[in-house]
Amino acid sequence: MDFAGAYAPSHLKFLVQGLWVTLEVAFVSIVLSFAVGTIIGIIRYWKVPLLSGIMAFLVETVRNLPLLLIIFFTYFALPEIGIKMSKMTAAIVALVIFESAMLAEIVRGGLDSVHKGQIEAARSSGLNAVQTMRYVILPQGMRRMVPPIVSQFISLLKDTSLAVVIALPELMNHVQIINGRNVNYVIPTYVMAALMYFVVNYTLSVLSRRLESRQA
Length: 216
What we know:
Blueprint: H1 3-6, H2 9-46, H3 51-63, H4 67-77, H5 87-112, H6 116-124, H7 129-159, H8 171-181, H9 186-215
GO biological process, one term: amino acid transport
Subcellular location: Cell membrane
Family: Belongs to the binding-protein-dependent transport system permease family.
């Protein structure tokens, strides 16, 4: 093992550049998947005729597919029908598809947990369905959703490493490139990558606990 060589300034800079790409992909995917997942979750909660059934079918289908397959599909299969994307776009699209399905179920479960009596009280006070969702159901449901949603976001950030299969220049891709230069760098670079992932994910966990305690 060559820790000194593996942690040379040029290598550390290269790893940080990969981490930055990982964070970029994760951030965009989190924002988009949260928006899409929330919309799907609300549609399923409201049991919108036909649309709710279609969403349920899509969600269950995606949830039972491996993310790696979805990444391959977006990058290698879609170009066959004329839909070409860059590596980063393909990775983001795959992550959004997969994570939206996961988040939709979290949102639906959180909304279902709101006591029916409060919903009836809101409707009897003159609020329509949309207002009841906005002012009563969503605020209470979101408090219960925070821990599982943050856990899903942490999983999403770790799942970005799967994009190494399409050579996205994220953290694990850069780790492999460095390891290809010298086999003695393998353990040190994996240790550094693990540390980087840990710091980011632990920070998210801490922020989640603080947010949850404030809402308690």
